[in-house]
Amino acid sequence: MKLAVVLFALVTLSECLLKIPLIKGKSARQTLEEKGLYEEYKRKYRYNPRAKFNNRAGGAMVPMIYYPESTYYGVIAIGTPPQSFKVLFDTGSADLWVPSVHCRSSSQACNNHARFNTTASSTFQPSSETFSIQYVTGYMTGDVGYDTVTFGDLYVTHQIFGLSLVEDAFLDNLPWDGILGLAFPNQQSINGGTPVFDNIWKQGKIPQDLFSIYLTSSVDGSMLILGGTDPSYFTGSIQWIPISQPTGYWQINVDSITINGNTVACAAGCQAVVDSGTTEILGPTRDVNNINGWVGAYSEEGLVSCSNIKRMPEIIFNINGFGFTLPASTYVFSYGSSCTTGFGTWDNDQWILGEVFMRQFYTVFNREQNWVGLAQAKKSPESD
Length: 384
What we know:
alpha+beta; Cathepsin D, subunit A, domain 1; 6-stranded mixed β-barrel; 5-stranded mixed β-sheet; 26 strands
């Protein structure tokens, strides 16, 4: 009888999970390269991930940077009746924002994306507050409001969110309309408001105070799971890693990074943020250049010979006593006839473990225990 009760509880828990399909769309870089504009945009809108992780002045400045490679997005709805938006689910920020119907742009940034019409929603509640989104080239302001946010059959009421009023040209070709942040609430959310996931938990919509992400290299099959984990997306057991610092980010300790038994980076240990809103694995310039040298890159941009991928070494991230291995097939990007490693540099001692890392490991973000869980992700049929 006790076993039957346990099995029933597991079935009930599984049925309560909310799965949000993530689509791997065409990146802004791909779109711009097809138009012959990528080099021009890269010079004009410098990718500066540091801006995202700087503390926000006054709690009102929302980091907004150019994500030329980001491709994963899911669909949510806001308002009554619901208005649909494609959003980047970002574990490196805490805010929800989408374009306003009053959004203005000198380019097609607003016209190329869905825009929220406040007057068309019977549940929208305006606010007198505003917020700012910071660009590398400046910043813009937006309105703040409250409304119902819907994920399939799940909804959360009175959710604070931002409505952008001005958008720069670099947003033209991004595959998503806005961002939904999944970081901790003390990561200076808009005007001190409660982030979406916190409201989902507080309003009793999910069985566990955690979510998990499965990323695949194919167009379909990636998934955000709210309220639990799904063993059909990973093999073996989940290895749990405690959050190292109460920074608001999903930050963990990394013991070292090794290749063929040699420590090639993070020799004395380092901090790393697990961030679904960053494409590459970012690290200090010296360490990343050393890794690129070990794998055979022949330029500062990490260019490698596409014909050598099968002979390139595995890279192991040693974390909390466990080794998490990245084969070359997961850390090399192919762009037409050229290939480059998925390691980028920035002026910081901290590491960012982005999509390159998360495609290899099913990742659990446990708010109740302040843990990050990692397990070997199952391959999709298309990635074999």
